Automatic annotation (TrEMBL):
This enzyme's EC code(s): 3.2.1.-
Keywords tagged on the record: Carbohydrate metabolism, Cellulose degradation, Disulfide bond, Glycosidase, Hydrolase, Polysaccharide degradation, Signal
UniProt feature coiled coil, ranges: none
Keyword Signal attributed: yes
Name of the featured protein: Glucanase
InterPro entries membership: Beta_cellobiohydrolase (IPR016288), Beta_cellobiohydrolase_sf (IPR036434), Glyco_hydro_6_CS (IPR001524)
Signal peptide: 1-27
């Protein structure tokens, strides 16, 4: 009941101002509709701890990683996507908590990087998938990170492929605006070591950023919060100068406690960062990538596949060695 009253009050106060905002604005702030962030009860870290209670690393992983609010990623492995996102958002809603979901199924996903290649079978298949994704969330409060790497991964793509990708993202934003009015959607903008701020601002704008709530930084990477904040502010300066608007941004702090050593794929010596919360120079600091999940068959994760939970990597990341 407490949350329902907050929703009603928020909606009543938001209505007059919402009418004056751009079409991308939502009537409610999902962070005020909930009492903190949702801890995924079925994360890879949670499952490993439950399956290995006698392991000497289990206690530390449980305390420092498994019980920290972090995002759940959704893709082809998620089954019927509307059912999956609906169940997850519904479970969080029943707990009066705010869930963070990652949409990771765009056609030609990781086309140039390759470690996480895959995605929907076609642009039309993706359009159907993302529409169901948004429909599953419906009116529940949520945060969505939209397609990590999708705007950074242009290096080997033709202009036709880039145009196709941007159209898919623009359509995705329209689906969330229409079907999930209490969801804040952040378009992924890579990290400070990938694409220059001016270039990223252009890509974000051309893919429909004006219709999103904001953009996300450092997903699955290691750059410090200060570096990401400076980069996000630089992107906003470009957006303001070129297009006349700015957007809030969030930073993935899950693995940036020691910063970056220049490597993005399972580098050694990294450390978990600031747990999920609001503020910190960005709108929110989030754990988007689960610490201990592999980036692919590389670095200290040699022999693993992207997304596989590696307990030794997770354990060392707690202590930074």
């Amino acid at each position: 009941m407490r949350r329902r009253l907050r929703i009603l009050v928020a909606a009543l106060f938001a209505l007059p101002s919402a009418l004056a905002l751009a079409p991308s604005a939502h009537a409610a702030d999902p962070t005020t509709m909930t009492s903190g962030f949702y801890v995924d009860p079925d994360s890879s870290a949670k499952r490993w701890v439950a399956a290995n209670p006698g392991d000497g690393r289990a206690s530390a992983i449980n305390a420092s990683i498994a019980n920290t609010p972090m995002a759940r990623w959704f893709g082809s492995w998620s089954g019927t996507i509307g059912t999956a996102t609906g169940a997850y958002a519904g479970a969080a809603d029943n707990s009066d908590k705010l869930p963070v979901l990652v949409a990771y199924n765009i056609y030609n996903r990781d086309y140039c990087g390759g470690h996480s290649a895959g995605g929907a079978a076609s642009p039309s298949a993706y359009a159907n998938w993302i529409a169901q994704f948004a429909g599953g969330i419906a009116g529940r409060p949520a945060v969505v990170i939209l397609e990590p790497d999708s705007l950074g991964d242009y290096g080997c793509m033709t202009q036709a492929q880039i145009d196709e990708r941007e159209a898919m993202l623009t359509n995705a934003l329209a689906q969330f605006s229409r079907q999930a009015p209490n969801t804040w959607v952040y378009m992924d903008a890579g990290n400070p070591g990938w694409v220059a701020p001016a270039t990223m601002a252009q890509r974000l704008h051309e893919a429909g950023l004006r219709q999103a709530h904001g953009f996300s930084l450092n997903v699955s990477n290691y750059f410090t919060t200060a570096e990401n904040t400076a980069f996000g502010n630089a992107v906003n300066s470009e957006l303001s100068a070129r297009y006349g608007y700015t957007k809030p941004f969030v930073v993935d702090t899950s693995r940036n406690g020691n910063g970056s050593n220049g490597q993005w794929c399972n580098p050694a010596g990294r450390r978990i960062g600031t747990p999920t919360r609001t503020g910190g120079g960005a709108e929110m600091l989030l754990w988007i990538k689960t610490p201990g999940e592999s980036d692919g068959n590389c670095g200290v994760g040699a022999g693993s596949t992207a997304g596989q939970f590696l307990p030794e990597v997770a354990y060392k990341m707690i202590y930074g060695y």
